[in-house]
Design a protein that fits this description.
- The complex is a heterodimer.
- Chain A is of the alpha+beta class.
- Chain A is built from six helices and six strands, in the order αββααββαββαα.
- Chain A has a single domain, classed as Heat Shock Protein 90.
- In chain A, strands 3-4-2-1-5-6 form a six-stranded mixed beta sheet.
- The relative contact order of chain A is 0.18.
- In chain B, β3 and β4 form a beta hairpin.
- Chain B contains four helices and four strands, in the order αβααβββα.
- In chain B, strands 2-1-3-4 form a four-stranded mixed beta sheet, covered by helices on one side.
- Helices cover 37% and strands 16% of the residues of chain B.
- The chains are: A alpha+beta, B alpha+beta.
- Chains A and B meet through α1, α4, α5 and α6 of A and α1, α2, α3 and β2 of B.
Chain lengths: 188, 122
């Protein structure tokens, strides 16, 4: 997977599998600190120390349908190859937080990729989960943040499904425009 | 420059949808499920789902729900897309590229004909 956005989709799927009800995804692009950081926080069942140690091992997976899980170890390796790191904080019953950083300017850093599509797909195709997305861009001391919280949207919609075509258009435009506006900071 | 959307716009969408009675049929007459485990994502499932959502928006389809699911153990067939229409049997499609999505949406979801070329053999 050669896109950070795809890894976020993969991490989010892990959180869903862990029984999370609320998932927050944050992305920070800080050119002043030359750092790209992603963080995913869930309220799922969490992991004990042994499991945390094992999830970054390519020959471990909590899945039972297939023996080898490569999502997390590959991401960890990619971060470390770019002067970054992966940190997993978790406790049984207390959810999981995964934070991954990269040197923003590192030549081997994979591109961020299409974040708005990933956010749209997660919101629409996991309607029972409460999603919050943060994106922050910083350059030359200027900082711009975009936040999307699906709760007010779902309150307004009530029984109208998120897959209604007009709702899809609304969500797609909200995410594309919000992210696009914040990302302009990087092109100053 | 397009105007930024507000929750007021969303209220209008809701009122319109309720007025046209699009909601009654909205629950479950057609369900589409896309496999989004690590192998699915690696094989391009994001583009598959993106195309499904694009077609729903473009053709204004109001009776479809879309879900993601984790790995279903058909790795070599990813990306996987499943279609469940009313009482009909669940159909599992494999190697579903955006091009395949267009055919499946057109011929099966809208037209009622299973697209044999992409069906995963049982």
């Amino acid at each position: 997977m050669r896109e950070i956005a795809l890894h976020l989709l993969d991490l989010a799927e892990n959180s869903v599998s862990a029984g999370a009800h609320a998932i927050t995804i944050s992305v920070y692009e800080d050119l002043d600190a030359d750092k790209l950081m992603i963080r995913i926080v869930d309220d799922g069942r969490g992991m004990d120390e042994e499991t945390i140690r094992k999830v970054s091992d390519p020959f471990f997976t909590s899945r039972t349908t297939r023996k080898v899980g490569l999502g997390i170890p590959l991401l960890k390796e990619a971060a470390e190859a770019c002067n970054g790191r992966m940190e997993i904080l978790s406790k049984p019953g207390a959810g999981t937080q995964i934070e991954v950083s990269f040197q923003h300017s590192h030549i081997d850093r994979m591109p961020l990729g299409n974040l708005s599509t990933v956010f749209l797909e997660l919101t629409v195709a996991h309607p029972d989960i409460h999603w919050i997305f943060h994106y922050t861009a910083r350059k030359h001391g200027c900082q711009e943040t975009f936040v999307f919280n699906d709760e007010p949207v779902k309150e307004v919609l009530a029984e109208v499904p998120l897959t209604h075509p007009d709702v899809l258009a609304y969500l797609r435009e909200t995410l594309e425009q919000g992210l696009g506006a914040a990302q302009k900071t990087l092109n100053r | 420059m397009p105007t930024v959307k507000s929750l007021e716009d969303l209220k209008k969408i809701r009122e319109e949808a309720l007025k046209k009675r699009e909601i009654k049929s909205a629950f479950g007459s057609i369900q589409i499920i896309v496999g989004m485990g690590t192998p699915g994502i690696a094989a391009g499932a994001r583009e598959t789902l993106k195309e499904i959502l694009r077609i729903i928006e473009e053709k204004h389809l109001t009776n479809i729900t879309v879900r993601q699911t984790g790995n279903i153990g058909l790795d070599s067939w990813e990306p996987i897309m499943q279609v469940l229409k009313g009482e009909e049997a669940l159909v599992t499609y494999g190697k579903v590229t955006p091009f395949a999505v267009e055919r499946i949406m057109e011929e099966h979801v809208l037209g009622g004909q299973v697209v044999r070329d992409y069906v995963v053999p049982a």
